[in-house]
């Protein structure tokens, strides 16, 4: 087999980082993309103006622009997965016509299932978390039972690698046995893949058991970190979305520490987020005075005083508090996710990083555009965080390609000779742990 002969598909690629990384690693577009209703839709108001879109519209627009768009299919129904469903679902094209995708003889499938049940911000009970994991379970069983590729890869939360994810891992291990696969869990961090964005992630590899290959495959370690300063200096100027509307609270906080610590305020910070610095240095009174003299409305000042008073009370009484706060970028940047997209400080300029820079941190191509106008781009920017960085995905798929091209070669399992159908590799610690 050669790379040109690899037949692959993507399931629920969301904003597209996993798909684009796979395409880079393999060298040609997928046979098809398979997803769910709504994820490729455009939302319009009563005046027929575009106001939003599903995550995948950004990717499909980009692929069409470059004449690389594969067939796009969807599951005809969007049912919850309870472990006993018939996996052979009806598949339809974008016109709603039934299609048959069960004779594609795929070598590889990549996916980005939703992992909110394992998210660090999840506060759901165990029963609800299991429901939240249904998308991940459904895609895995559907892929192994119906598409039957030689390799299936999906990205998930770092918790899948920990005690918190043990029950789910056991489910995947049993699923692999049921359909004749082995499993390799690979924990890594985005910053180790030619990036400066720090975000732990778990990738799960299912490998089809064939004669002479009935052990988990080994994914190699990698550590190719780039400093935030070097990364940002390499971003071309003049790209679309170089917009970063000031959040007034972020500007006040940065101006406060600039006044307190001087031009080298970053080096003098004890904490990596600005509200934590206020707490650690007990600067509440000085900050309130600074806010009183600041050029914002009385309503904004009143709002700030309430927030800071609440933080001060909870901090000094040993209580937890939650407040969106600008975070520092020094050697690395905070993860591109949730409110960090709006609250991350540039590594060497006194401003927040802009929307384009968040896209660059995810490794999206320079001409990758959001499928809405500039007015609404900020409103759907959170979709960038529901994504896999392109370089991270490219490395993972490159490892799968390496194994596909050397399918009959044996990995070195001498340290773990027992016959498990799974293994766990921690790239952050550069260690195989099971």
Briefly summarize what is shown.
With 434 residues, the protein is of the alpha/beta class. It is built from 14 helices and 13 strands.
**Number of individual domains:** 2
Query: Which class do the helix and strand fractions yield?
Result: alpha/beta
Question: Stretches where pLDDT falls below 50 for ≥5 residues?
Answer: 120-129
Q: Going by CATH, what is the homologous superfamily of the largest domain?
A: Vaccinia Virus protein VP39
CATH-defined fold name of the largest domain: Rossmann fold
Helix-strand topology string: EHEEEHEEEEHHEHEEHHHHHHHHHEE
Strand content: 5-15%
Number of helices, counting only DSSP H or I runs of 4 residues or more:
14
- Name of the CATH class of the largest domain: Alpha Beta
Care to describe what's here?
With 434 residues, the chain is of the alpha/beta class. 32% of the residues lie in helices and 14% in strands. Strands 7-6-5-2-1-8-9-11-10-12-13 form an eleven-stranded mixed sheet, sandwiched between helices. Helix 1 (17-26) packs across helix 14 (390-405), helix 4 (134-147) packs parallel to helix 5 (166-179) and helix 10 runs antiparallel to helix 11. The relative contact order is 0.16. Mean pLDDT is 88; it is low at 120-129.
Describe the secondary structure blueprint for this structure.
Elements: E1 8-11, H1 17-26, E2 32-35, E3 42-44, E4 50-53, H2 56-65, E5 71-75, E6 91-92, E7 98-99, E8 108-111, H3 126-132, H4 134-147, E9 151-156, H5 166-179, E10 181-189, E11 200-208, H6 228-233, H7 248-261, H8 265-268, H9 274-280, H10 284-292, H11 298-316, H12 355-361, H13 374-377, H14 390-405, E12 422-426, E13 431-432
Parallel strand pairs: 1-2, 1-8, 2-5, 8-9, 10-12
Antiparallel strand pairs: 3-4, 5-6, 6-7, 9-11, 10-11, 12-13
Helix pairs in contact: 1-14, 4-5, 10-11
